[in-house]
Each structure stands twice: as C-alpha cells, then as structure tokens.
Design goal:
Length: about 300
C-alpha cells in the first residue's frame, strides 16, 4: 500500500465523495474533513498536520469509512458523535441524529426559562438527549426530566448526560409508545413543569420511503414515523399533556415544514392557547409554542386526580 499523508487523504476523500456519494463540493469538504479527523484522532488534521503520513491501518480505516458513507451510512453514526448547540453528543443507530433546526427550540426555551429561578423541565421523547442536556447545561439550577420508550435509547442519553457533565440535573424515565404524559404524571413535579419540550416524529408514513437513503435506511423509523399524515404525535401530546404545567408554564414542539397550521388547529381544538410560530434560520415555521387556558388546565388536573 502506497504511503499517503493527511493532506492527500483529505483531497482524495473530497474527490471520492463528490464522485461516489453524489454530494456537493461543500458537503464533500465538510465530510472529508470529519472523516480524516476521525481517522487521525485530530481536529482539522489537514491544517495542523498535513504532512503526517497515515499508517496502513489508518488507510484501511479511511477506505472503509468512505465506502460506508458512499453507501448511505450517516457520518455521525460512522464517527460516533455530532455537535449540537455547542456540545458534543455520542450518536448511533439507537436515536435520531440531532439537527441544527432543533436548536431553534432549545434557544427559545432557554430564553424563556432563564426568567425562572429553578425551572422544572421535561423533554418528551429524548433520543440522544440533545434537548434535555442542552437545557440542563445552559441553565444554572434546572431540574430536567427526559422520557423515551426505548431502554437502549435512554442508555445513550444517559451516556451523553455524563459526557456533558449534567447527570445530576436530569432524571431519565422510560415510557410507553403513544403515552407522552404518563411518565411525568406521578413524578414529584407532576403539574408544576415550567416547560414541556418535544421533537416528536412528524414524517407521514408514506413519505418515509422518499427520504434520503441515510435517513430512511439508517435512522430509527419510530423516531421518524408520525402516522398517516405525520400529525399523530401532536394529537396525542395535545390531548394528554394538559394539567402538567405550572400556571406560567409553556409547551414547545418542533414541526416539519408546512405543518404549523394543522398543528395549531390540533392544539387549539384541545384547549391550548397557541402563539405565533417560531422560525428557524431558513425561515421555516419550526416551533409551536402553546400555553394552557385556565379552564382546560383545571380540567386536566381533575382528570389526572381521578
């Protein structure tokens, strides 16, 4: 095997990805940089150690990594981590890969929760834990609950809490599919949450097959499939989560592009007061913010007390 230095590895990786993985030049540069960093164990290795020669095992690892990415394996799953809201998260097939657009929800929630002295927060369907952990990391004295239906997914989220030094601030609870409120009802803070946050599955079932290979063939289907019209989880959350919030508490859910009017109607019909949508950096209506109406809140409390 011919010797190859880091700079050559980086350049060859860009060319390979552009020709074999059908990505843009910019995407190829980003992915090539991350792959070479992964192979060498050094950030921005092509800039800091361009002349460093790769050992034969590293070259073999590089070739295998490029092949897997070209076949559709998501890069975060390959390298085992991703960045979100300035933090590093372990990432694998147990959970959806955190997306930059979800930072819209996190930023808005932190801004509102910063007004609370010791906020009590819950993330419904935590996955990697990116929302719950980012909240726990950013606020001075929060109490955070994070739920998920899969035990192995919660194991990943716990590992990420440890990685980001917030284990003592987060309670992880396993729930049941479709039962969004149930894990929180019997906690000591049931009925006094300052915020309920969620990025639920919102892809319509029949649209999943049309998604990119790296999404439809690799990411967990239960984290994508929102039912026939993509709105099942919103219906469940709107119907179940009344009575969980403190008087000034709020609920935020992430939305798919174009879903705001339909989700607004769902929450309004369930008795919630819905605010104007929050838009992401691309201008998409990305987050729905809702509060409980007093009458609906009282009814929710009464129902949970039975």
């Amino acid at each position: 095997m011919a010797k190859m230095n880091v700079q050559r590895a980086y350049e060859d990786s860009i060319h390979y990805l552009q020709t074999q993985a059908s990505v843009t030049a910019e995407e190829a540069r980003v992915k090539a940089r991350l792959i070479v960093d992964y192979i060498t164990g050094t950030r921005y290795a092509h800039l800091t150690h361009p002349a460093l020669e790769l050992e034969a095992p590293q070259q073999e690892k590089l070739e295998q990594a490029l092949l897997e990415v070209a076949q559709g394996r998501p890069l975060p799953y390959l390298i085992g981590q991703c960045e979100f809201f300035g933090l590093t998260f372990s990432c694998d097939e147990r959970a959806l890969i955190p997306r930059p657009e979800t930072e819209t929800l996190v930023e808005a929630a932190i801004e509102r929760l910063s007004q609370c002295l010791k906020p009590i927060v819950a993330e419904l369907g935590t996955g990697t834990g990116c929302i719950a952990i980012s909240i726990a990391h950013a606020l001075p004295e929060p109490t955070v609950y994070a739920t998920d239906v899969r035990a192995d997914t919660l194991d990943l989220a716990r590992a990420n809490a440890q990685l980001n030094a917030v284990t003592d601030r987060i309670h992880f609870i396993q729930g049941k599919a479709g039962q969004w409120a149930e894990p929180l009802i019997n906690t000591e803070h049931g009925g006094t949450f300052d915020a309920l946050l969620s990025n639920p599955p919102y892809i319509a079932t029949e649209e999943i097959t049309a998604l990119q290979t790296e999404i439809k063939d690799w990411e967990p289907r239960e984290a994508l499939d929102g039912g026939e019209d993509g709105l099942d989880c919103y219906r469940q959350i709107a119907a179940q989560c009344g009575g969980l919030l403190a008087p000034e508490g709020f609920l935020m859910v992430e939305l798919g592009a174009g879903q705001y009017p339909a989700v607004q109607e769902i929450f309004t019909a369930a008795g919630w007061l819905v605010a104007e949508p929050l838009r992401d950096l691309a201008g998409i209506e990305r987050v729905l913010l809702a509060r409980e109406q007093p009458a609906a809140k009282a009814a929710g409390r009464e129902q949970k007390a039975r």
